[in-house]
Amino acid sequence: EMPSLSPKAKTAGGRVPNSKGNWGVWLSEAAAALRGERVVAREVTIDTQSGTRVRVDLVTRTLSGTLRFIEAKFGPSAGFTDTQRVGYPEIAQHGGTVAGGNGAGAGLPAGTQLGATQVQVDTWNGANL
After folding, report:
1. Measuring CA to CA, which residue among 79, 81, 39 is closest to residue 61?
2. Which parts of the chain fold into alpha helices (H)?
3. In the chain, which end has fewer C-beta atoms inside a 10 angstrom radius, N or C?
4. H/E stretch holding 43
5. How far apart are CA 71 and CA 59, in angstroms?
6. Which residues contact 73 (CB under 8 A, 6 or more apart)?
7. Alpha-carbon distance 38 to 29, whole Å?
């Protein structure tokens, strides 16, 4: 099944992404589908213990039923924002709190406390395409 972009994502002709950021998410969703995962939420915001707020691109459910948090980067110059550089390691060590309603489809309503959770970073720079 072809990945489906977020309704907010702009596409070229309705089929493929038209921006580098959207291409990264699209490719990460395709890779997740090949692993047998299903996207259950998009653009989920997480607050860390220190007050840093980050938003992961995708949340998938693996074949074993666990949730995977994915950040997609596309292009050789794609890097982390300042908040991602601080927030992702904090989430990996201490977890965080889901903010907003985008996680509800994954069973993560606002206020859900996450334990230590690794954020998988998919880097699409041409070498892995």
Report:
1. 39
2. 20-34, 82-94
3. N
4. strand 38-47
5. 9
6. 24, 79, 121, 122, 123, 124, 125
7. 8
Evaluate whether 29 touches 58 at the Cβ level (below 8 Å): yes
Confirm if 30 and 84 have CB atoms less than 8 A apart.
Answer: no
User: Where residue 98 falls among pLDDT bands split at 50, 70, 90?
Assistant: very high
Q: Is the pLDDT of residue 78 over 80?
A: yes
Amino acid 103 reads G
Q: Give the span between the Cα atoms of 7 and 97, in whole angstroms.
A: 25
Better-predicted residue by pLDDT, 5 or 44: 44
Amino acid at 64: S
Parallel/antiparallel/unpaired status of strands 53-61 and 11-12: unpaired
